[in-house]
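Narrative of accomplishments. A recurring question from our advisory board has been how the design workflow behaves on a single, concrete structure rather than in aggregate. To address it, we present the structure tokens for one chain from the evaluation set, followed by the sequence designed for it. No filtering or post-editing was applied between the two.
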């Protein structure tokens, strides 16, 4: 055979990449004798040899192939390993030589095999244009759930998984395709690609399909190339997708003048360091296989293709069963993922055969064991929190302190009288169930009392952020159409009343009929929206009761606990602080107005009142940990945080300082009521904190944009269903259902869900891992921010022609900052300070970009859209350029503080930014005094400097 097949005598000169054929070669047969070994020893040795030869690399300076003969115990059976490099033989050639090696047929004479004719330039130009048009929409390589970036895998380790479809089912399956005008290969490939696309984040695959140049029977060699197919799952029957696939393959075969190497180069600029075509689908149905009665049978194999992470092969075994083989790189894909892919393809084929139709919904053949924690709405917990609050307030059974705010405190009887007074005042103004009352007040005892009075009277309460700009506040009030606005006198809102004016002299509680299980609107909360305007979320008591009931039980909360509410009262987490604490008879502590952003005061309050429960967004907790001593926080027994990325470093710090603490991760947007998913953080959560598992009565589905459910481990849009859902949104006084959409469950049942702006994926244990957010929503220090809302506000500036607002990373940390890239409407662009001042008229401080870049035009992606990745990269790379030498006293002070704290000046920090939010600690104060004295020539008293909350106050002190 060595003398017969020239490929077996071929070697490659590395410097010139030229092939040479030796006139003769001594056969390279290696023999390993295990006849005297035990069965166990032989099996272990064979496995070791298999691992060794599977990963071996041939030396091209000698013919790159090997055959190893292993004599097994007893000398009656043998195993034979064969290894060939595709530099000299393609798959079809290898299968031909192996078949000849083990059959007894005489070797037929072979014609000289000339290389394929090179295409002329005209044909190449035509083929190039065809491929450029065909692949114009391909932006990135196939987005399977890669375990690490493919470009970072230097030494790939290969592995094989496979499935078998028996010959009878294969025959029925291909007949179904033939009846619809499909080749057998097309039918199989369409099912493979359509199913595999479910594992791609965008339900699209760009795959390489090896093809061979037409040739006469001759010397086996490597005459193959490949074409590229961009397969996208569409909302259409599988048959239509298969017919389109068949047309694409036939079209590619007509344009082989633009080679596979050319295609890879064409796609490479779009994929950075990653391989252009990491997924290959090979049709091996025409390759030779050993006959069923051969004295030797195929055992296993492994194909290692450079620049490929997943190679799927369709081939026959000796019995004409279909082998679906997946050779893959272990560092790229987990074995359970590849196994799940093949199982899904196999099950879909079987289901199609059993139903006699290609057009069976794919969800009928998929398994979703990762949905194990989802429970129906009927599993929600009942909790009469309003009844318990009323009993605590008005039955004289409680004696201790109910609420503390700064130096003020109210015992239960006094709080009950204040709530009754406010309730009677509301009734005197003809307000009752369904009426809307806006509460435009700072955190205070009066705010709490009015909130409770509204809830008990079934009046819809709307807490409004008192720090909102005037225009924004006007919109919030106009949209919710309140019958009454309650605010301080200096707010100057027409028709409003102050808390004192609302109070009634009657402190006897009226009749309260509020139902804790009601699904009618109970309160409104504003949150950012992608439409360019804040969204008014309409929430109900039934959903609130479910969260409160489960949390009180799971966290074992009793009247002996002491809560602190540092979350703003217009934020959904504050609902838990207020209503959970007062429903169990616990004490609620509120920072005074001047302590709102003072983490030093928070630490003092925790120690003074022996706080046991802390619940906030991560940024607020981090401020506390930076400013409080370990002793001050010793009373805490549980810390919960949610609403943004939880840093593993923060968890490690908490574990080291307070090892006894229970640590909880919370999640879920405002539209799913307070929180709807959680996770108890354990010692094993070191790299990334899980988003968690749904609360009882709640379902979390992760879906592609098409509505198909994502397999386990595949990132998609998070949808939430069940008892926790809000009623909808309020727009100009009317209830609307934007982003509340129907989703077909895996059981085929239509469920109302909230389509969140979050992307996540399921782990096999039923926990969700957060991935990122869709374009439009981002989280900035725990606050959900709508980028379109910011863009719409800034486009009103007369000097801005167009603008793109993005979140971007600062100094390789998970924390995000806001930046804006804009096109100026005239020759003189506005200054950064002018844009910030303009933005403050329309946006809260959390929504104002800290970095502005002016450009003459926006970069475009390959498909003609604004290239947000390029803009984000520019913001990150030019971040330091904004940190020029300080020009004003405020900037000089900020620079000094940043230098002492050992961190760069972030673009969103300005003279009013609280030092505590920037990371200032008490330990920094001595160095600050010295630095200010040296650089500014002024010696400030330590007692005065420590009281300064921001750079503006330091400058006032300097003056």
């Amino acid at each position: 055979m060595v003398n017969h097949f020239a490929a077996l005598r071929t070697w490659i000169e590395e410097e010139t990449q030229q092939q040479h054929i030796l006139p003769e070669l001594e056969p390279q047969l290696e023999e390993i004798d295990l006849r005297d070994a035990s069965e166990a020893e032989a099996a272990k040795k064979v496995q070791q040899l298999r691992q060794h030869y599977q990963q071996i690399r041939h030396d091209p300076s000698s013919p790159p192939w090997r055959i190893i003969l292993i004599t097994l115990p007893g000398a009656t059976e043998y195993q034979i390993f064969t290894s060939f490099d595709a530099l000299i033989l393609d798959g079809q050639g290898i299968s031909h030589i192996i078949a000849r090696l083990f059959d007894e047929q005489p070797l037929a004479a072979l014609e000289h095999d000339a290389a394929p004719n090179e295409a002329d330039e005209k044909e190449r130009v035509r083929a190039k244009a065809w491929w450029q048009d065909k692949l114009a929409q391909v932006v990135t390589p196939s987005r399977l759930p890669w375990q690490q970036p493919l470009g970072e895998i230097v030494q790939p380790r290969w592995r094989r998984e496979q499935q078998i479809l028996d010959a009878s089912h294969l025959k029925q399956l291909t007949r179904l395709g033939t009846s619809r005008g499909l080749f057998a290969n097309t039918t199989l490939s369409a099912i493979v690609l359509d199913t595999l696309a479910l594992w791609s984040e965008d339900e699209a695959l760009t795959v390489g399909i090896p093809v061979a140049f037409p040739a006469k029977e001759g010397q086996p060699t490597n005459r193959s190339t490949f074409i590229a197919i961009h397969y996208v799952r569409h909302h259409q029957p599988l048959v239509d997708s298969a017919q389109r696939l068949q047309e694409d393959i036939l079209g590619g075969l007509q344009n082989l003048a633009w080679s596979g190497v050319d295609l890879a180069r064409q796609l490479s600029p779009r994929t950075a360091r990653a391989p252009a075509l990491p997924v290959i689908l090979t049709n091996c149905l025409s390759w030779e296989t050993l006959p069923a009665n051969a004295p030797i049978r195929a055992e296993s194999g492994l194909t290692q293709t450079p620049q490929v992470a997943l190679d799927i092969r369709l081939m026959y075994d000796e019995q004409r069963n279909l082998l679906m083989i997946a050779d893959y790189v272990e560092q790229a894909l987990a074995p359970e993922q590849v196994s799940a892919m093949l199982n899904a393809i196999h099950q879909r084929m079987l289901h199609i055969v059993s139903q006699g139709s290609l057009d069976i919904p794919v969800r009928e053949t998929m398994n979703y064991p990762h949905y194990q924690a989802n429970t129906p709405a009927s599993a929600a917990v009942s909790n009469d929190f309003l009844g318990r609050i009323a009993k605590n307030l008005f039955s004289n059974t409680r004696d201790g302190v109910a609420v503390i705010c700064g130096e003020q405190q109210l015992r239960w009887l006094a709080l009950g009288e204040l709530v009754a007074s406010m309730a009677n005042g509301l009734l005197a103004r003809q307000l009752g169930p369904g009426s809307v009352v806006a509460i435009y007040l700072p955190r205070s005892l009066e705010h709490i009392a009015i909130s409770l009075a509204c809830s008990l009277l079934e009046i819809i309460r709307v807490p409004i952020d008192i720090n909102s700009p005037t225009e924004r506040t006007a919109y919030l009030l106009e949209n919710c159409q309140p019958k009454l606005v309650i605010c301080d006198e200096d707010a100057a809102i027409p028709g409003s009343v102050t808390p004192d004016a609302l109070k009634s002299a009657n402190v006897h509680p009226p009749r309260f009929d509020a139902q804790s299980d009601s699904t009618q609107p109970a309160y409104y909360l504003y949150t950012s929206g992608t439409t360019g305007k804040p969204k008014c979320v309409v929430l109900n008591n039934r959903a609130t009761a479910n969260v409160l009931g489960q949390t009180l039980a799971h966290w074992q909360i009793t009247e002996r606990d002491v809560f602190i509410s540092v979350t703003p009262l217009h934020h959904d987490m504050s609902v838990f602080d207020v209503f959970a604490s007062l429903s169990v008879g616990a004490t609620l502590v509120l920072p005074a107005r001047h302590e709102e952003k003072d983490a030093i005061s928070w630490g003092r309050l925790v120690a003074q009142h022996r706080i046991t429960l802390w619940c906030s967004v991560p940024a607020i907790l981090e401020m506390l940990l930076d400013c409080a001593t370990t002793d001050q926080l010793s009373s805490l027994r549980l810390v919960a945080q949610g609403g943004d990325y939880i840093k593993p470093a923060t968890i490690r710090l908490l574990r080291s300082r307070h090892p006894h603490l229970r640590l909880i991760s919370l999640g879920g947007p405002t539209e799913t009521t307070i929180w709807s998913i959680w996770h108890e953080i354990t010692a094993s959560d070191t790299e990334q904190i899980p988003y968690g598992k749904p609360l009882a009565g709640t379902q979390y589905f992760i879906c592609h944009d098409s509505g198909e459910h994502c397999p386990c481990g595949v990132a998609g849009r998070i949808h939430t269903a069940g008892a926790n859902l809000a009623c909808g949104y309020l727009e100009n006084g009317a209830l609307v259902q934007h982003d509340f959409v129907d989703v077909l469950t895996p059981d085929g049942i239509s469920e109302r869900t909230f389509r969140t702006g979050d992307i996540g994926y399921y782990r096999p244990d039923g926990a969700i891992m957060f991935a990122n957010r869709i374009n439009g929503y981002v989280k900035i220090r725990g606050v959900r921010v709508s980028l379109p809302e910011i863009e719409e506000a800034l486009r009103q500036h007369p000097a801005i022609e167009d603008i793109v607002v993005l979140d971007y990373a600062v100094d390789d940390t998970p924390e995000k900052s806001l930046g804006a890239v804009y096109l100026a409407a005239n020759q003189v662009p506005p200054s950064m300070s002018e844009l910030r001042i303009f933005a403050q008229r329309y946006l809260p401080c959390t929504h104002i970009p800290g970095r502005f870049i002016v450009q003459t035009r926006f970069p475009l992606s390959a498909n003609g859209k604004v290239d947000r990745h390029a803009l984000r990269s520019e913001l990150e790379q030019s971040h330091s350029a904004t940190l020029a030498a300080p020009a004003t006293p405020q900037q000089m002070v900020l620079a000094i503080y940043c230098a002492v704290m050992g961190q760069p000046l972030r673009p969103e920090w300005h003279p009013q930014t609280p030092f505590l939010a920037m990371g200032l600690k008490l330990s920094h104060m001595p160095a600050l005094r010295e630095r200010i004295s040296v650089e500014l020539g002024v010696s400030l008293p330590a007692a005065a400097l420590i009281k300064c909350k921001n750079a503006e106050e330091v400058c006032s002190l300097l003056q």
